[in-house]
């Protein structure tokens, strides 16, 4: 699952070194009399967030992540509070391939997700909260639901209805071909990979292998060192494409000419390019070229059959929408206890934001006349993704002084 000058937090990278949770963790269990169960979710800043009851006591929020192998609790204080014993220390390496932080193994956790229970789940706990994930999602998030919870079932994600439907594999009937296309996928270490064609701006066509990753708030991420044809386009801007242990991951924002998914072709796809190899367990070992994230996946109703390695896709009305991106040249995080203070994190030099004097640390207190307490991080970002030439009016707070700023958005790629 991931600079400094034009940042937008997209992905979080966790690479667990040489570790597999024991087979006794059965994941989420469906009732015997149910063929499927629906789990509602929130969709914040292009992340899927579900409510989780932790060990029958704590109501928490977890990211639903098809790109993660393990279920992870990010805040050790919560497992300490409930008196869990830590059985093993698991090393986790950062996105910089140098920083190592410990995770701790806890066993026999009871998790409730919607109406489903995982009664004896083993999971990892980060020894320290290095991600500050909630600051970038805009709401409090306590962990990640990985494939060890749902891989024995078949999952359908309906982004419009905000529903994850978990089917019992033994009773699942494939949808009618008239409504869904069926695509062969590979499932490696419980992660689904799609083979598809990408038309690059230089005219070359790349047959690519991409991770289907609901833990990524991106369109498309490509690792340029995975194929000779994967070169940076002429027009790119530096960008933070994610965060991992060891800090932000550097990359670039640009476009590809098109991306084929089944019988649909998505034109002018906003694409994040990563030049450094940062995955120990994916790019090198499984010949992965990159990641398809939620900004593309939300354009389909999607069913993943892990056991039979099938993907069912049905395009929605979003399929024809143009891809948006930030046209201000700044990134914003949500801070404070309730994640209701919006702070400028980084400003790109020579961008619309820098040209009107926006600075790192400025607090945004009003956007287009609307006070920040009526806004979310997602709605603020949407205001900065409007058409080039639009004016976004801000009021910022700097050193106790309220300052008005008018940002004229423009195309940066």
Describe this structure in words.
- This protein has 413 residues and is mostly beta strands.
- It folds into 3 domains: 12-169, Cathepsin D, subunit A, domain 1 (Beta Barrel); 173-320, Beta Barrel (Cathepsin D, subunit A, domain 1), CATH 2.40.70; 330-408, PDZ domain (Pdz3 Domain), CATH 2.30.42.
- 7% of the residues lie in helices and 45% in strands.
- The chain has 6 helices and 30 strands.
- The chain has helices at 76-81, 133-137, 147-150, 294-297, 352-355, 377-383; strands at 12-13, 15-16, 36-40, 42-44, 47-54, 58-64, 72-73, 89-93, 100-113, 116-126, 143-145, 154-158, 163-167, 181-184, 186-188, 191-199, 205-212, 220-223, 237-244, 247-261, 264-274, 290-292, 300-305, 310-315, 330-335, 341-347, 363-367, 370-371, 391-398, 401-408.
- It has a 6-stranded mixed barrel with strand order 16-17-22-18-21-20. Strands 5-6-11-7-10-9 form a 6-stranded mixed barrel.
- A hairpin with a 2-residue loop joins strand 4 and strand 5 (47-54).
The unreliable regions are 1-13, 278-285
Fraction of residues in helices? under 10%
Beta fraction of the residues? 35-45%
What is the CATH class of the largest domain? Mainly Beta
> CATH-wise, what's the superfamily of the largest domain?
Acid Proteases
The geometry reads as: globular
Helix run count: 6
Distance between the termini: 24 Å
Q: Major beta sheet, specifics? A: 6 strands, mixed, barrel
User: Would you count the extended β strands for me?
Assistant: 30
CATH architecture of the largest domain: Beta Barrel
In what order do the strands lie side by side in the largest sheet?
Answer: 16-17-22-18-21-20
Radius of gyration: 21 Å
């Amino acid at each position: 699952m991931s600079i400094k000058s034009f940042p937008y937090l997209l992905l979080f990278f966790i690479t667990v070194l040489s570790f597999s949770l024991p087979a006794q963790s059965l994941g989420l269990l469906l009732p015997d009399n149910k063929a499927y169960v629906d789990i509602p979710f929130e969709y914040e800043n292009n992340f899927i967030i579900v409510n989780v009851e932790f060990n029958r006591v704590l109501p928490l929020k977890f990211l639903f992540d098809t790109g993660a192998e393990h279920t992870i609790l990010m805040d050790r204080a919560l497992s300490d509070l409930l008196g869990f014993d830590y059985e093993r220390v698991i090393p986790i390496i950062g996105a910089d391939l140098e920083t190592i932080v410990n995770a701790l193994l806890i066993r026999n956790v009871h998790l409730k997700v919607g109406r489903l229970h995982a009664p004896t789940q083993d999971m990892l706990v980060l020894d320290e909260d290095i991600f500050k994930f909630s600051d970038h999602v805009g709401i409090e998030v306590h962990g990640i639901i990985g494939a060890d919870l749902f891989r024995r079932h078949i999952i359908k994600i309906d982004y419009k209805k905000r529903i994850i439907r978990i089917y019992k594999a033994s009773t699942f009937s494939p949808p009618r071909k008239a409504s869904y296309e069926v695509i062969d996928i590979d499932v490696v270490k419980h992660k689904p990979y799609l083979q598809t064609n990408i038309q690059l701006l230089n005219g070359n066509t790349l047959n690519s292998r991409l991770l289907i990753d609901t833990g990524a708030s991106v369109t498309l991420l490509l690792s340029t060192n995975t194929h000779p044809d994967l070169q940076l386009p002429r027009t790119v801007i530096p960008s933070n494409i994610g965060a991992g242990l060891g800090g932000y991951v550097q990359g670039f924002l640009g476009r590809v000419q098109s991306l084929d998914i089944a019988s649909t072709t998505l034109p002018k796809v906003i694409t994040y390019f990563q030049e450094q190899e940062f995955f120990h367990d994916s790019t090198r070992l499984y010949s992965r070229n990159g990641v398809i994230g939620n900004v593309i996946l939300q354009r389909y109703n999607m069913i993943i059959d892990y056991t039979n390695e099938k993907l069912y896709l049905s395009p929605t009305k979003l399929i024809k929408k143009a891809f948006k991106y930030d046209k201000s040249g700044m990134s914003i995080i949500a801070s404070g206890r309730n994640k209701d203070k919006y702070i400028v994190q980084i400003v790109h030099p020579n961008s619309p934001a820098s040209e009107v004097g926006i600075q790192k640390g400025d607090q945004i207190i009003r956007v287009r006349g609307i006070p920040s307490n009526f806004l979310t991080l997602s709605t603020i970002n949407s205001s900065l993704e409007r058409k080039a030439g639009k004016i976004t009016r801000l009021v910022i707070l700097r050193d106790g002084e309220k300052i008005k700023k008018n940002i004229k958005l423009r195309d940066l790629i």
